[in-house]
Amino acid sequence: MAAPPLPVNLMPDQTSPDWLNKGDNAWQLTAATLVGMQSIPGLVILYGSIVKKKWAVNSAFMAFYAFAAVLVCWVGWGYQLSFNVDHKLTHFLGRPNVALNEEFLFRKAFAGNFPMATMVYFQFVFAAITLILIAGALLGRMNFYAWMLFVPLWLTFSYTIVAFSIWCPSGWLASMGVIDYSGGYVIHLSSGVAGFTAAYWVGPRALKDRERFPPNNIIMMLTGAGLLWMGWTGFNGGDPYNAGIDAPLAVINTHVCTATSLLTWLILDIIFFKKPSVIGATQGMITGLVCITPAAGVVQGWAAILMGLMSGSIPWYTMMVLHKKLPFIKHVDDTMAVFHTHAVAGSLGGILTGFFAEPKLCRIFYNVAEWEHYIGLAYGLRDGRSNAGLKQMGLQILGILFVISVNIVVTSIICVLINFVIPLRLSEDQLEFGDDAIHGEEAYALWGDGEKEKFENSKNRGEVQMA
Fold first, then answer.
1. What is the C-alpha to C-alpha distance for residues 359 and 370, in angstroms, rounded to an integer?
2. What are the distances in angstroms from CA 467 to CA 122, 445, 458, 462, 464?
3. Are 353 and 290 in contact (CB under 8 A)?
4. What does the UniProt keyword field contain (predicted)?
5. Rounded distance between C-alpha atoms, residue 123 and residue 106, angstroms
6. Which H or E element spans position 119?
7. Does the N-terminal peptide bond of residue 41 adopt cis geometry, omega within 30 degrees of 0?
8. Residues pairing with 88 in the sheet
9. Closest by alpha carbon to 106, among 16, 215, 240, 4?
C-alpha cells in the first residue's frame, strides 16, 4: 500500500513544519477549549438555571443548538468570510470557502506560529459564544424553529462582516487602527445590540413571566457563572496568538477588572437595595469581563482596576435607573439584560481602551513599530501627542457606531424575513406550559408537579423497594 502523502511543507524526516511553535500551539488550543467551555457547559448551565423551571430545558437547549450549528456553518463558509486575508470580496468581507481541507488546515495561520486548523478552532468558539449571548435576550418566548434559522443567518450576514472589518488584517477598521483586543466590539457589543434588536421583533414574554421570573437553581447559576469567569482566561489570554509576555498580562487584568466590577456592583446593591444580591453580583461579574475584553493586554493594571470600578457602576446605573425611565428600553423585554451587560459594557470598554491604551503594550500586541495609532488619549496627553490620542478615541467611537448600525439593520432584516416563514414568537399555549409543550421534556421531576401522588400510590401498592 502506498504511503500517505506528506502534509504541506513537510520534508520526509519532519513531523512539524519549521515555523510551528509547539508551546504557542498548545496554549492556543487550550485557550480555545476554555472559551468553548464558557458556552458548553457554562452558558448552558447559566441559562438553564437562571430562568423559571418551566423554561430550563428550552433555554439551555437554545445555547446547545447554537454551538453545534455555528461550527458547521463556520467550517463551511463562516471562517473564510471572516478571515480570508488573501482574498476578500470587499473591505467588509472575505471570499467564502470551506475551511476543512488538509492543505488549508496545515497552512500557517495569518497570525501566530501555529497551523490554520488551530486558528479555525479558536475563532469558532468566539463566533459560537456570540450567538449564545444573543439567545440570552430571547429566553422564555422565542420559537425554537425560528431560532434554528436565526443562528446560521445571523452568523453569515452579521458576525462575519464585523469580524472581518475589525479583526482581519485586511478589514477596513483594522487597517485604520481600531483596538479590539479580544471582542468587546466583535462579540459583546454585537451580541448586546443584536439581542436587544431581536427581542424587539420577537416581542415580550408572557405577562406573568415578566412580572415574576425567579431562577430555578441559584447554586447551578453560580456554577455556570464560575465557568464563564474562569473560561475568560482563554478568552483574553489567547488573543496575543502566542504564549508570550502579553498573554499573562491580559489574564491578570481580566480577573482584576472582573473582581473589582463584581464588588462595585455588590456594594451599590447593598447601599440602594439593602441586600447583597447574588444575581446582581453575577451581573457585575459579567460587565467586568466584558468591559476589560477590548483592552485586556494593552492597558496597565491600575487602568484595569479603574475600568472595573466603571463597569460595575455605569451598567448598574443604566440597568437599575435609566432602564426604568426610558420608555423604549423599558418596552423591550431583554430577558438576561444583554443590552446593559454586553452592549453598554462593551461600548464602555471600547471607549476606555481609547483612553487607557498604553503605546508600548500596543506595539507588543500588534507587533508593529511606533505608529500614529494605538495610543490612548491619556498617554497622548502625557507625551505631547494629544492629536494621536484624540484620533484613537475617534476610531474607537467609529467602531462602536459601525457595530451598532450593522447589527440593528441586519438583525432586523433577518427577523422580518424569518417571520414570513415561521412565527418568531411561541404560541400562547407554549408560553403557558414552556418546556413540556415545546420539547415534550421537563428539567426536573418534582413532587410538586404530581410526582408525589404517583410515588405514594406506588408505595401503597408495595411497588417501591429500597435499594
1. 8
2. 47, 20, 16, 14, 10
3. no
4. Ammonia transport, Membrane, Transmembrane, Transmembrane helix, Transport
5. 16
6. helix 116-135
7. yes
8. 94
9. 16
CB 144 within 8 A of CB 62: yes
Within a 10 A sphere around the Cβ of 375, how many other Cβ atoms? 27
**End-to-end Cα, the chain, rounded Å:** 57
DSSP-based three-state secondary structure for 131: helix
Residue 108 phi/psi, 5-degree rounding, is -65, 135
C-alpha span between 261 and 255 (Å, rounded):
10
Helix segments in 155-206, DSSP class H: 160-167, 172-176, 190-202
DSSP three-state, residue 425: strand
> Which pLDDT belongs to residue 439?
95
Report d(CA 364, CA 164) in Å as an integer: 22
If phi > 0 it is left, if psi is from -120 to 50 it is alpha, else beta; for residue 330 that is alpha
Alpha helices in 295-385 (DSSP H): 301-311, 314-317, 323-325, 327-331, 338, 345-356, 359-366, 377-382
What's the rounded Cα separation, in Å, for the pair 67 and 65? 5
> Diameter of the chain by CA atoms?
87
Q: Are the C-beta atoms of 82 and 88 separated by less than 8 Å? A: no
- Judged against a pLDDT cut of 50, whether residue 1 lies above it is answered with no
Check: CB of residue 240 under 8 Å from CB of residue 250.
yes
CB 294 within 8 A of CB 183: yes
Closest by CA position to 149, among listed 130, 131, 126: 131
pLDDT confidence band for 446 (50 / 70 / 90): low
- Architecture of the domain whose range is 22-205+228-439: Orthogonal Bundle (1.10)
Cell of 313: 457602576
pTM of structure: 0.92
DSSP 101: S
Which cell goes with 82?
A: 471572516
Q: Which residue type does 278 have?
A: V
The set of cell numbers assigned to 227 is 465557568
What is the distance, to the nearest Å, from the Cα of residue 34 to the centroid of all Cα atoms in its chain?
13
pLDDT of residue 462: 45
Query: Where along the chain do its domains lie?
Result: 22-205+228-439
For residue 108, what is the DSSP state? B
Q: How many residues does the chain have?
A: 467
